[in-house]
Amino acid sequence: MNTKQTAAANLALLLAATLWGGGFVASKVALSGWTPFAVLALRFGLAALLTGVLFRKRLGGTTRDTARRGIILGALILLAFSLQLTGLRHTTSAKASFLCTSYVVLVPFLSWGILRHRPGVRAVAAGILAFLGIGIISLNEAFVITPGDALCLLYNLPYGLALVLIGQFSTPETDSIQMTFFQFLTIAVLALALCVLTGADFRCRDLSAVPGVLYLSIACTLVAMLLQNTAQRHTSSVVAALLISLESVFGFSFSLLYFQEPVTPRMFAGSALCFGAILICNWRPKEARQS
User: Which pTM was predicted?
Assistant: First the structure.
């Protein structure tokens, strides 16, 4: 991989993680007015509409293979976010920000099983270190498996699988904008269908939830997912998982600001562990960099 492209891709993924970090607060706000499936339908429906308007000329040449890849990713991410939002209704956003980034440990092994990319010792060690750091930051109480916690943990399997497949699907021959549009459209259509099938109320119960949906649609979905799908072809799925897992660090920080919770030494200790994980994962011996 080109070193400059990889560095730019990693910065783009870090920006995506920052935007997704704000999504934990935004999701709580959005859920005050809508059901989980309604939030997903609105979030991804608006994102698909904006993508279609902004890139309408580019979407005209979408191949069947690119559309198929977007549909597969959309189905997986719909499942993941459905589990996350349902779990978030029954647990705290700080706790969810830890539980919903457990894929950082899972991705190297999914990549190994699916793509036969055996994880190195540093990748596994960095994943475990990041996992511990996220736990120190996010857990404010004893770890107890509640129904909400269990759903947030289950989120990691379909999302981790989608993360591996994004890396596999994001080839030079695949237009990332086209793939992302069909990903958004698939989630919106399936979420709307689930609203109808389950009889979920689509009406807004509280207008203060509108800013939450707008943030989720534009910042977390349109901008962040385009960044992810475009950047991930220039870095490894393991590094991408570690960078994206920092959304929990940002999510916890934004929760402190929004809910005015006190800053504790645990936050700084956990951040140091996460930063150390990134350094370990990206560090290369001098000889290797020169070769």
Answer: 0.79
